[in-house]
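Good morning C.,

I know you're traveling, so I'll keep this short. The sequence:
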Amino acid sequence: MKLVTRFEAASRSTTELHCLLAEAFNAFCTAPRSSAERYDALQSMRTIEDELATRSPGF
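The tokens, ready to paste straight into the viewer:
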């Protein structure tokens, strides 16, 4: 998985971020331990979660 940057996360809609989060989670689960792919997926999840936390919740 390609690393999701803070800028890229900020430019996506909340729905898109939830889809990207699922993709990152799946990539993390399937990547070999201690691999660059696993690290990128983990960092992407953190970035996406941080961006989602800054947004006001929709009702």
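Safe travels,
E.
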